[in-house]
Write a structure and sequence with these properties.
This protein has 135 residues and is of the alpha+beta class. Helix content is 13%, strand content 18%. Strands 2-1-5-3-4 form a five-stranded mixed sheet. It is globular, with a radius of gyration of 13 Å. Bound molecules: FE2/S2 (inorganic) cluster (FES).
């Protein structure tokens, strides 16, 4: 079940109203997100990239349980960032601690696409050893 962090500002996000595709790189795993099946069962905000990764069997590191209190879920949104919610100040502060920060970096647990674009997400190299897929 997704947790919340009472010490951070509430994050504004919009759940998708339409189905869309998300590709995880470098494993090139494509996931179709069905708007009517957004779940809160995994860690991270409902509809977040962390939530989607975990549901797809990608064990993306998320030490704090998806509540914006670490930076281990750092990902880079290579395409479709414009359809994601804006990072708030708490997320920006955590991202500042992440190695390999890029302009398109986000915390996967806080980044929620609205479904208006396809998304390509890169899992940073330093985090890849931790990622395993179950097929
Ligand atoms: S899992 Fe800790 S900030 Fe995303």
């Amino acid at each position: 079940m997704a947790g919340t962090n009472p010490y951070i500002e509430k994050t504004e996000y919009e759940l998708p109203q339409q189905n869309y595709n998300l590709i995880f790189q470098p494993m090139n795993k494509k996931v179709e997100i069905l708007a009517e099946k957004i779940t809160t069962e995994n860690d991270g905000l409902p509809g977040s990239i962390l939530n989607i990764a975990l549901a797809a069997g990608i064990d993306l590191d998320h030490s704090c349980g998806g509540v914006c209190a670490c930076s281990t879920c750092h990902i880079i949104v290579r395409e479709g960032l414009g359809s994601c919610n804006e990072a708030n100040d708490d997320e920006e502060d955590m991202l500042d601690l992440a190695p390999g920060l890029e302009p398109q970096s986000r915390l996967a647990c806080q980044c929620v696409p609205n479904g208006s674009q396809s998304i390509i997400v890169e899992i940073p190299e330093w985090n890849r050893n931790l990622v395993s897929e179950d097929h």
